[in-house]
Amino acid sequence: MALLGRKRSLLGFAVLATALTVSTISAASGAPPTEQAQPVSTQVVPKPVSATAGKGQFTLTRPARIVSDDAAVGNALAAYLRPATGYPLDVVAGDSDLRQGDIVLRLGDSGTPGDEGYKLDTDTHHVTVTAKTAHGLYNGVQTIRQLLPGWIDSPTEQVAPWHMPSVNITDYPRYGYRGVMLDIARHFQTPAAVKKLVDQVAAYKVNVLHLHVSDDQGFRIAINGFPNLTEIGGQGSVGTGGRTMDPGGFWTQAEYRDVVAYAAAHFMTVVPEVDSPGHNNAIIMSEYNDTANPLLNGNPQDINCSRNNPPVWNYTGAVGYSAMCPDSDNTWTILGAIIDQLTAMSPGPYYHLGGDEVPASLMSHDKYAQLVNQESGIVTSKGKAVMGWAEISGEGITPPAGSIAQYWSISSGGGSGTITARNAVAKGMKLVMSPANHAYLDMKYQAGSAGPPIPPTLGLSWACSRGCDIDQFYNWEPEGYVTGITDSSIIGVEAPMWGETVLNLDNVDYMVFPRVMAISEIGWSPKRASLPTAYADFQSRAAAQGVRLTVADTNFYPTPKVPWSLDLRAARVQAGSGGQFSGSLAYLSAPGRASGAITTTIDWGDGTTSSGTLSGEAATTISVNGLYTLGGDHTYSASGKYTVTITASANGTSPVTTTLNVEL
Ligand code: TNX
């Protein structure tokens, strides 16, 4: 991505107008006020179950090693920390003798319920994570990252120090299912983009990636024996920007397996979904004329129960017009092959068969129920549990034991739209909660025509008459959302990212972040006693993510609902001879702020002060965040030791300061 390249080179920028001899300016190695470890309570999302502050702080230094009972998780931590620190961070076996400054990942009794919990203790000597499972250690690793300064997520080397607060954390999730869904059917997304999204959301302890791989406008995974599914079915995406059709694409099975493995390495389970019997126009268009396919019976037209016969492509966002016929053998040959191959490539426990939005005017409820029942039988025969949109709890459907209904209605309490959740529980199903007005990542941030300022084309608004900013995503409670439904019936929460309006990962990032943090916290942290109190606390912790997202090139929406702060990090600098200095002094993260709205001053430590210059990208329709390089020019009149103090300030937020030591 060009954007990534530009930001990377920005951070990698190294000084100097006049290349000269010896003298040095080095970043301060002490701990000036702004570079002390921040308290845990202000920085970790999702909020840990308990965190008790200790005395002093831990400092990650060059000789540190990662002493780990699990090599893969040890290597994952090292890979997270190496780019920004530049330290080697050798990963050694768990029974190695400890040295001062090591990070320790121990498999053992963490005293936490379930499999994903961990204990994390830091003191001035070590950081120790203890967990029963590798997944628990990995969750502790995500917390370690967030206890370090946000610049730890930079892909390029930054200057020390790397402090962490002394703390004792005990942490474990409320729900076992904490999902993000990505719709790669409405707009094709590459495996590389999906992997980056996996990276981004794993940081917030999301553990499920639900992939919506088929819909009316596209079929995205190659299925052996049915090349038309991707050759014809994968050719387009929803048309945007005045186009009838946007470019399509598909993944080979090798690419799908690679994404599944990548997700697994991030302790995320992939739940594949081929929506049925509705949302099936791409499958029908692909197979309707596939008369020569030896696997079909020569008359595949009988799969089509859509409104149009023959079927026609429709690359708008229309829904509810297509359906596959349950009485066609060809339907079962096609769906059978899809389920067989996708489940074989997906080690997770679930297969999502869709089941949403089939109007009775298109297909009788009996036929719909017949199809869902038959398909459920195939799914269970492959050893998977059935998952579907909550409509699959309807009359005449007999969900196999262990089936999951995903609740997406905007109805709450006892409203008529909540019937799907009640039916599901009555049939012994468990629920994943994704109410569209609180969890749909494709909804616009602001209501009405105003919309967010940039970019205006993204998102729909049907579920969010008042706008769906981060407050709307945070201020709801799964238990009792539908009257009478308790946590004993809820396995978790999921935030679906539907694809009609998002063309690439920058677009996806803008809709996903920062709102996914709210869903991850609802899924992980204990039930909140008071939403207003919890929300105020969440806002400040969300603000602490700004620098992390910015340096990691996550194109998040800098919503005014989060009090984003400025964050300044000293750069590695050199000085010129003759006391002349010109170049980069620091990097500044300033989410959503144009450079012109930021004031910088450099106190050169010799009684003179000047303003700094900020270089970086201005916000555009695809790039909304502020990551700047702060530069300055100065000539010292005498050699000596100077402390350079750099300050950045902007309206409505606290000024930030960092220092550099200069010796000439
Ligand atoms: C509803 S909710 C859908 C999707 C759309 C989405 C757009 C549900 C199961 N289906 O087909 O993409 O709204 O917001």
Distance, first to last CA = 41 Å
Largest sheet: 8 strands, parallel, barrel
- CA-atom Rg in angstroms: 27 Å
The overall pLDDT, averaged over residues, is 92
Main β-sheet, spatial strand arrangement: 9-10-14-15-16-17-18-19
List the bound ligands. ligand TNX
Structure, explained:
This protein has an 8-stranded parallel β-barrel, surrounded by 8 helices. A 7-stranded mixed beta sheet has the order 2-8-6-7-5-3-4. Strands 1-27-26-22-23 form a 5-stranded antiparallel beta sheet, with no helix packed on it. It is an alpha/beta fold. 25% of the residues lie in helices and 24% in strands. It contains 15 helices and 27 strands. Ligand TNX is lined by residues 319, 356-357, 389, 408, 440, 442, 460, 498, 500.
What keywords describe this structure?
664 residues; alpha/beta; seven-stranded mixed beta sheet; 15 helices; 27 strands; binds ligand TNX
What is the structure about, briefly put?
This protein is α/β, with parallel strands linked by helices and 664 residues long.
Helices and strands in order:
Layout: H1 2-12, E1 24-27, E2 50-60, E3 66-68, H2 71-85, E4 91-93, E5 103-107, E6 118-122, E7 127-131, H3 134-147, E8 162-171, E9 177-183, H4 191-202, E10 208-215, E11 218-219, H5 227-231, E12 236-238, E13 245-247, H6 253-265, E14 269-276, H7 281-287, H8 329-345, E15 350-354, H9 365-381, E16 385-389, E17 404-407, H10 419-426, E18 430-433, H11 436-439, H12 470-474, E19 490-497, H13 505-512, H14 515-524, H15 531-551, E20 567-570, E21 580-589, E22 598-603, E23 609-611, E24 613-616, E25 627-635, E26 641-650, E27 656-663
Parallel strand pairs: 3-4, 3-5, 5-7, 9-10, 9-19, 10-14, 14-15, 15-16, 16-17, 17-18, 18-19
Antiparallel strand pairs: 1-27, 2-8, 6-7, 6-8, 10-11, 12-13, 20-21, 21-25, 22-23, 22-26, 24-25, 26-27
Helix pairs in contact: 2-3, 4-6
The structure holds ligand TNX.
